[in-house]
């Protein structure tokens, strides 16, 4: 459809990932004329772009899906405990087909600007094909981790080999066979890619700045009997997704790590380590609020690294020293074991920083490493980055970036909306629980809240909604206070914006719990949208 023909829509939605697809489905069901713009040439969002070797979700597949449609849940069969990227992409394509979503999605089209016109009470949305559309509501499904961070290394343009970022991986297979490969970064993406690349490459050099704690995933194929059972238990799965703090079936044991003897604790840690997955993170309830409790689990993982990695010097370089869990916990498949391979070298770039990329490889202060391929597993400008990629302007032409950079302070109400930007909503926006909950759970809760809100406004004949300054300042203050009471803020991570040079620091995720948060959102809706101005 030509975009010139779709002016004066009810809603423009950005992105056709988990958020945009469900938002579109619900908006259409509720009778709102809607158009989704998606930069990729297919659905999937992060799962469209993250095609790097080893890309896999670290939430168990039976929870990493939508719960709004029992029919969909009954129809889809996950094959393994942790779904890989192709399987998740197939699932989202299946969803798009089942609900006939593609006819309202314009692919290969990036939203470059969205300006609110106060006189007309419309959002003017500019697209990268030179056209524009207007709509009453603008909803971002840009996600939390869609703005790749490519560090500004000197000399990258001179590199004669090939280079890739994990978050913008090409569609065709990258051939590592016999090649000298360098991977920069050891977060979730690097930890997944490194063991797979190592098996194919001639030689792999890993450039590590911060060592990471990772836990074995112990992925395995699902037994069909297990899948049958989960389908029979759909109502319970849905409850676990929507009414628990993790949203992913994990129950945090309500007991302090310090209340057990060291022997008992070790026994529990060994058991959950053997089971694999995030059971370790939920084995006690105070890892993230009590330093001593955190030492118990951090020490345990360090002991495992020393056990697994044969070369003591390499093992020493791999030992993390931040509080476990304050960077995003990681699941791996043979990560530490990979350093026992003959064709893998670990370089500590905190000790010997990278100076530049050269035509033939990469130079640290210790010397040059010759490489044919460089993989940047260097992460994302999280939470605000995807929104700042566009020029979003609210009342009086004020840009979202200017607003949030003023006083180094993101300010939102419930992470859903921000004052001076009427009729603009963010799905899993900054200061909502987002990435600290199972993402499909967080997304469904936001989409359903937004749709209820739009229906309410339509019914009441309200033209515009935006948070009051008081409500958003109180919410942002509450978010900061909750974060300050935890160990999260003691660690530099993408959660705090510390991974991006010059980015204002603030904890961008709500840590008060998904259950409490959902309750608060429901109360706001039930009160007729307390904390919002309706006009
Ligand atoms: O990114 P990251 P990611 N020089 O920011 C290093 C989700 N996710 O793409 O820690 C050298 O975690 C950086 O070092 P340091 C998940 O939420 C989920 O891996 O800043 N190194 C770090 O090692 C995750 O948390 C899944 O010192 C540099 C790495 O690059 C989030 O996405 C899979 C550098 C970046 O790690 C992001 O994960 C993948 C520099 N200049 C992602 N700049 C699953 O579901 C950065 N680094 C499994």
UniProtKB/TrEMBL annotation:
- Enumerate the UniProt keywords alphabetically: FAD, Flavoprotein, Monooxygenase, NADP, Oxidoreductase
Q: Does the keyword Repressor apply?
A: no
Instruction: Write the protein's name.
Output: NAD(P)/FAD-dependent oxidoreductase
User: Family, per the entry?
Assistant: Belongs to the FAD-binding monooxygenase family.
Q: Return the SUPFAM superfamilies for the record.
A: FAD/NAD(P)-binding domain
Q: Does the keyword Oxidoreductase apply?
A: yes
Q: Which cofactor is recorded for it?
A: FAD
The Gene Ontology terms for molecular function here are: flavin adenine dinucleotide binding; N,N-dimethylaniline monooxygenase activity; NADP binding
């Amino acid at each position: 459809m030509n975009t010139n023909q779709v002016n004066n829509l009810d809603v423009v939605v950005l992105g056709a990932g988990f958020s945009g697809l469900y938002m579109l489905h619900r908006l259409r069901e509720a009778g709102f004329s809607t158009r989704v713009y998606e930069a990729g040439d297919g659905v999937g969002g992060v799962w469209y772009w993250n095609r790097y070797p080893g890309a896999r979700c670290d939430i168990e597949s039976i929870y990493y899906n939508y719960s709004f449609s029992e029919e969909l849940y009954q129809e889809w069969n996950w094959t393994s405990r942790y779904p890989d990227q192709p399987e998740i992409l197939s699932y989202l394509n299946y969803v798009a087909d089942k609900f006939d979503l593609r006819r309202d999605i314009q692919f290969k089209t990036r939203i470059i600007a969205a300006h609110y016109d106060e006189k007309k009470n419309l959002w003017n949305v500019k697209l990268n094909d030179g056209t524009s559309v207007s709509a009453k509501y603008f909803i971002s499904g840009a996600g939390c981790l869609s703005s790749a961070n490519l560090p500004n290394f000197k000399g990258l343009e001179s590199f004669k080999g090939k280079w890739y970022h994990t978050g913008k991986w090409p569609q065709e297979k990258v051939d590592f066979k016999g090649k000298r490969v360098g991977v920069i970064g050891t977060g979730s993406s690097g930890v997944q890619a490194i063991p797979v690349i190592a098996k194919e490459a001639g030689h792999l050099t890993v450039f590590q700045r911060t060592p990471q704690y990772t836990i074995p995933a112990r992925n395995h194929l699902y037994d069909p009997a297990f899948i049958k059972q989960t389908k029979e238990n759909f109502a319970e799965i849905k409850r676990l997704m929507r009414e628990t703090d993790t949203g992913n079936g994990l129950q945090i044991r309500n007991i302090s790590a310090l209340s057990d003897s060291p022997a008992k604790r070790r026994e529990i840690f060994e058991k959950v380590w053997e089971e694999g997955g995030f059971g370790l993170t939920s084995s006690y309830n105070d890892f993230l609020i009590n330093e001593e409790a955190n030492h118990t689990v951090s020490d345990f993982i360090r002991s495992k690294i020393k056990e697994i990695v044969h070369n003591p010097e390499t093992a020493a370089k791999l030992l993390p020293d931040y509080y476990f869990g304050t960077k995003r916990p990681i699941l791996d498949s043979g990560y530490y074991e990979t350093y026992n391979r003959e064709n893998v070298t670990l370089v500590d770039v905190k000790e010997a920083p990278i100076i530049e990329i050269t035509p033939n490889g990469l130079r640290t202060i210790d010397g040059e490493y010759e490489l044919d391929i460089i993989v940047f597993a260097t992460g994302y400008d999280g939470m605000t980055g995807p929104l700042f990629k566009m020029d979003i302007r609210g009342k009086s032409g004020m840009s979202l970036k200017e607003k949030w950079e003023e006083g180094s302070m993101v300010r939102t109400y419930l992470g859903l909306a921000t004052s001076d930007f009427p009729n603009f909503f963010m799905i899993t926006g900054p200061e909502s629980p987002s990435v600290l909950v199972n993402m499909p759970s967080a997304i469904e809760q936001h989409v359903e809240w937004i749709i209820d809100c739009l229906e309410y406004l339509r019914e009441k004949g309200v033209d515009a909604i935006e948070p009051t300054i008081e409500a958003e300042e109180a919410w942002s203050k509450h978010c900061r206070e909750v974060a300050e009471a935890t160990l999260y803020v003691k660690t530099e991570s993408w959660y705090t914006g510390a991974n991006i040079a010059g980015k204002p620091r603030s904890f961008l995720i709500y840590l008060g719990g998904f259950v409490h948060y959902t309750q608060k959102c429901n109360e706001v809706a039930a009160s007729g949208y307390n904390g919002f101005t309706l006009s």
